[in-house]
Amino acid sequence: MTVLADRSAESHRLTSAQRVLSILGVFDAENLALSLSEISRRSGLTLSTTHRLLNELRCWGALIRHSDGKYSIGLRILELGTLAPQGGRLREIALPYLHDLQHALRANIHLGVPDGHDVIYVESLRARDTVPVPSRQGGRWPLHATGSGLVLLAYAPQEFQEELLASELRSYTAKTLTDPDELRRFLAEVRRSGVAVVESQLTYGVMAVAVPIRGPRDKVVAAVGVTVPSGSASPHALIPAMTTTARSISRALGAPSAGAPAPRPHWRVHEATRPLTPPGARR
Amino acid sequence: MTVLADRSAESHRLTSAQRVLSILGVFDAENLALSLSEISRRSGLTLSTTHRLLNELRCWGALIRHSDGKYSIGLRILELGTLAPQGGRLREIALPYLHDLQHALRANIHLGVPDGHDVIYVESLRARDTVPVPSRQGGRWPLHATGSGLVLLAYAPQEFQEELLASELRSYTAKTLTDPDELRRFLAEVRRSGVAVVESQLTYGVMAVAVPIRGPRDKVVAAVGVTVPSGSASPHALIPAMTTTARSISRALGAPSAGAPAPRPHWRVHEATRPLTPPGARR
DNA sequence: ACCGCGGCTTTCATGAGGCGGAAGGGCCGC
DNA sequence: GCGGCCCTTCCGCCTCATGAAAGCCGCGGT
What we know:
Two copies of one chain form a homodimer.
Chain A (H helix, E strand, L loop, with lengths): L1 H8 L6 H10 L10 H8 L3 H14 L2 E4 L4 E3 L1 H7 L6 H18 L2 E8 L2 E8 L14 E3 L4 H8 L3 H9 L13 H14 L2 E4 L6 E9 L5 E10 L5 H19 L15 E3 L12
Antiparallel strand pairs in A: 1-2, 3-4, 3-8, 4-5, 6-7, 7-8
The first copy, chain A, binds a DNA duplex through helix 1, helix 2 and helix 4.
């Protein structure tokens, strides 16, 4: 009864699709394997509902069950994820160049693409002997908090930038850029120079440098980021190799400004996750 | 009316979770972007149901919508997929070694892990100048049809092998191994020699060589596969580098036989996707 | 211009099936 | 032995997902 009051009170109404998704959503980098009751608690679903859905997800291959009874994300999801157009294809094309870059710079390399207000690392190559930055393939960070993110933001549509600048910008270190005006100036400078350089923006003692990658219509579709321990290198030592890499990848993607071979119109992502009303809706 | 008869006739009853999953399931490597009505047709769901679910999935980030109205898998799924224990972690550890191997052999390199009756390529490095094999990261093939798959099968539990051998084994070329007895002999040979060598098994004119990778309790958890054009190299030229690579990765994963550093008990996948009744069930 | 068609969006009444409470069972550690 | 925790199963109520239908848009043919 009290429980029932609780539930209905806070508009805890979910559609059944949302229930399924909320189960998937409880997994993150810190929670790779969770038990039934942990999932139930974290998702806010009752035990029996969670139990039933977990079984359905497991049968489909979205989840697996370990010998200790805990659940994890299954390979079926990994398989699906590689079908994301910005993921699979872009990553596949870029990977050889990124490796060359890593070989040349001996630094952590990321390939980031925008998703909502965040940047997702579609690829992350860690140098064995450098700072352990918290960047994994599949990692998600706010656009304003990373070098790659700031590059992507700099080339995003004006209105999107303003929308993001108006939202709450989380601070990770004392040096994280969160002031809208400061950010606007920074982004303008990125557009002017074509490169973003930040220091201890997300993690203390880490310098990040990032440059844009362009696709078919010269639209910026991704960013290459490099992180090194602060003071271990000058940005100027990194930038030439990075712009070269970015240009190679851009050309391979068909960017005219990089010497595109053929203009083949392909997938282009437009609408992000936000609005419930789809683009074709009445105005 | 005829339509209604159709639907109810073939026990087309799905749970709502299954409906969500059946939508995700319509995407594959040949169908990266689909329109509402295509998804509706391929999933067997009515248009309005599909429409509603697509919106929910899009809001959550599981799908994105392109400017032409078509839907694709979203980065949120890619993000989730990297949380698969066999995927993210294994891949991250193995990648540097795989790259060294590619550098040495100049061939296509795969890292495969088992999922049900299939092998999933957790990583796939294509050599720029060699045969275009149909292997992408996230690709799924029957265990009996690829070099890596046969290695994984060879070290799988006896009962699992028999279950798989009893199922229908699809043939891809005239040389695909599909005869149970022939396969049994082949698998025994793989266990004896520790390497699988096949020719035109999945694709004509391609030779595949694969070796096992072992994890914590010396259990075979993955396989490294190499594909080269038939006749371009002798297996003996490839095998030493491959076993070296596999050993390095195995050691990094904590395999005792490869000189394990520490026995840290971690995730181990036990139950695959098949049975609806979970492992703890009554017997 | 007209019409038809295919694809997309929205609405709504209906009843199937998802839901959560509760009970039962197993496995700890105290 | 007992209490706590976790997992599993069952079942009746009632919500909410469902599919039909209608409306809209844009396209192409005649």
